[in-house]
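## Example record

The block below lists the input lines for one assembly entry, exactly as stored, with component labels intact.
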Amino acid sequence: MAEDVVTTPEAEETEESRDPYDRLVVRAGLADYSPVRGCMVIREYGYAVWELIQNWIDGELKATGHKNAYFPIFIPLSFIAKEAEHVEGFAPQLAVVTHGGGEELTEPLVVRPTSETIIYDMYRKWIQSYRDLPLLLNQWANVVRWEIRTRPFLRTMEFLWQEGHTAHASAAEADAEARLILDLYIRFIEGELAIPVMSGRKSESEKFAGADITYTMEAMMQDGKALQMGTSHNLGQNFGRAFDVWFLDRDGERKNPWSTSWAVTTRLIGAIVLVHGDAKGLILPPRIAPIQAVIVPIWRDDEQRAAVETYVAGIAADLAAGGIRVEIDDRDTVRPGFKFNEWELKGVPLRLEVGPRDVEAGQAVAARRDTGTKESTPRSELVARSGALLEEIQQQLYARALTFLHENTHEAGSLEDLARGLEEQRGFYRVNWCEGQGCERAFAREKATVRVIPFGEESEPNGPCIVCGEPARARVVVARSY
Amino acid sequence: MAEDVVTTPEAEETEESRDPYDRLVVRAGLADYSPVRGCMVIREYGYAVWELIQNWIDGELKATGHKNAYFPIFIPLSFIAKEAEHVEGFAPQLAVVTHGGGEELTEPLVVRPTSETIIYDMYRKWIQSYRDLPLLLNQWANVVRWEIRTRPFLRTMEFLWQEGHTAHASAAEADAEARLILDLYIRFIEGELAIPVMSGRKSESEKFAGADITYTMEAMMQDGKALQMGTSHNLGQNFGRAFDVWFLDRDGERKNPWSTSWAVTTRLIGAIVLVHGDAKGLILPPRIAPIQAVIVPIWRDDEQRAAVETYVAGIAADLAAGGIRVEIDDRDTVRPGFKFNEWELKGVPLRLEVGPRDVEAGQAVAARRDTGTKESTPRSELVARSGALLEEIQQQLYARALTFLHENTHEAGSLEDLARGLEEQRGFYRVNWCEGQGCERAFAREKATVRVIPFGEESEPNGPCIVCGEPARARVVVARSY
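Predicted structure tokens for the full assembly:
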């Protein structure tokens, strides 16, 4: 059956028909639906969040010796087929260019779903000796995966990401790199996005197509479902072998390099919405908020207006000088109450209200987005107090999400427990599992998957496999997911 | 005829067969040829230059009220056809996706060659009132134009760029925006890239497909050919009308917005190579050099090495603290002479040589890449002197390029003069022209084009059209170009 690609006005879902998440993403100005099915437009506000994500990750990657490069968006179809598991994983998701410049192409080109294959074709030219290793590259790029059911940020046909691709002279070094990046991601997601994660490795059937080990971080959304926040793959020698990359090692032997790849995507923006949002709209963690504080001036006549606006401009200048991302909402076409609602919808962590009486008293009213509490603060303390409040909000959002994660992570001692739990109680389930794929399919029948096999003793089994009753190999986290 | 897209080892040009520019770009580590015909890989060093370009442009765009967003890479083929001139201009250059997820698509999608069409489809939703204007958006993205003859950076099938797309409530405001951006680009190209440009507007036949006016900047390469450095288009109401975008103006009337679009691309990196390079390799203007100063330690034995390396680490820390992008080349696998050549090839503006005698004397030897001159500088003055030298190099590169531009810009009083001049003397030719397309074709027969119609009195004719002898409408710049 041919596939429709263009959204017509008739086919487009009406706003009412979308679920609350989809509506919020559009109403808060993070993204909008495009005329191409499955592709979103990232609007200014959403892109500003992405830029803050990029800044942090890019800075840390550079600080750990990684460099950015850029590889072509087109990959010859035959390249995808060179790594056996890779082609099996990605073939159904490919967008294929068959014509260029008015001619049919001799070999179709695919729009990159991920760049391992074209990158390893280049690595064959660049890697000759152990002196060329480690090679630590990253690229910021768009990728395309043909998806049937899409949702803004969470799963789109085109998305933005960074993809790191490193090559090393030993298996241990490659694994250390994959773990280093996982830790970097966790620091970012927990520290900046205020989202606690459970980390570990994926099961054999859930790992990346072509990886030896996939490390993952799973976060719990407010509906109890899991969202994979990013992955870091130890690729072993699979791609080096498939793409005929060889280096002369110190010991005089020719070897395929050991390699890694890892990525986080614009999906992180969806996670922020799903973890922190409430009935009023978004709540952005201050460290990732494009606007950390919004000032709403309140006045009734021109005389008041002049006084308030002068005062407010001074406050904004002080806050900006103090390193706070601040904006004044000086529109005179809408009332303060409308502005309050709009900035709450957009999740700005701190609102400062300033009316004529505040000017007289030399103060401002600070309202927290997370708790809704208000306090009057003298102007002389406003910068310090705003900074402290933003830090408190950051910590509070993380603490709230961590409590939610703990409260909704359960034990399931049997398949029946698991099935009932998943139906009646949202959340993650710790279960003992033999790591057999047959038993894994029993989870799938409950519309759940093994999200993560945690590191260390957290995954030590404390009973038999809940499906087959044979000795368990690991205590894993099973959940429904996005 | 079907078109080959994949470069096989046999089909790939050998390094020797490429011209000096192509070889230099690869040898200096800016880019490499990819297996996909016409697509390059931007390597770490080239991408670092691009990041410096991005930082400056992005900062200035934000300072002038523009915001970044991101629009889909795929555009329904039918969209391209909505603006009549636009489809004529871009149809031959399209890469077309006909299959996705294993199915044939009902309507092919093109990979964006530029984004006006999909952006104006969104602007129809977002623009309702004069209050929604001006809308000042920009995106950093990859675009694809199917090109037959490609060269790294100068003309590639896929390239990176920023594309600005703004909408305004009046014709005057849109034109002011297009000029504002042109001025911003000129400040960047002359000030940071040290490349003088001639600016003005394009002729009717050379302007962007769908624009009322295309403003351009043209630079002269060392072979006398012109390179278009970037363009800023006043699109009039063409796209607003074609995409049915309407706003209610202050005067109560419904109108199509006036709009602009503008871009600079990774081509700028090619311009840096072609304008400043010499027989030894690149010369990077300091403000855009990823490494502004490289320190080469020189020693013969371990004792000397220890002393030199300690000394050099201190210098590097001082320079970095002084805001200079510095690197130490501490490889022990190659000799200093090899390093000198390599860093000259890569165009690092300043080299600091430090041997045991320099350590004793408390100094370093500073070698300029542009002039080759060397001087000993006391360590206590090294940061200040390095900063001053980098500034001198920046100015000197610009002055040299400006002199070259002036010396190679000629007058041509007749078509014969122009034809002889283009054959015998490289450079730009100022000619009087009636602005008729018939006469423009006479330039084309000399393999030249009207590069720019300068602003103001610079384009006032001082004689009849050199082709038809009728009264000239402008004195324009004609040249061969990349």
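Chain B touches chain A through 69 residues (CB under 8 Å). The mean pLDDT of chain B is 95.
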